[in-house]
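Supplementary notes for students who missed Thursday's class. We covered one full example, reproduced here. Read the sequence, then the structure, then the short commentary at the end.
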Amino acid sequence: MDELIGIVTAVIGIGFFIIALLYIQRSFKMFNDVDKILKIVSEYIDKNKKGEL
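Structure (token representation):
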């Protein structure tokens, strides 16, 4: 049950993070920085998935 709560919390956190990135991207037009951040985040998520499985 604790694992499920952790996964749900992570998904919600990632969702808010992506919304914040999109807001920053619109505000400042920092496409390169956002792409770099998204690559780092996706790599981190992939590592977490491999760790969980």
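Commentary. The two ends are 16 Å apart (CA to CA). Residues 2-28 form the longest helix (27 residues). If anything here is unclear, bring it to office hours.
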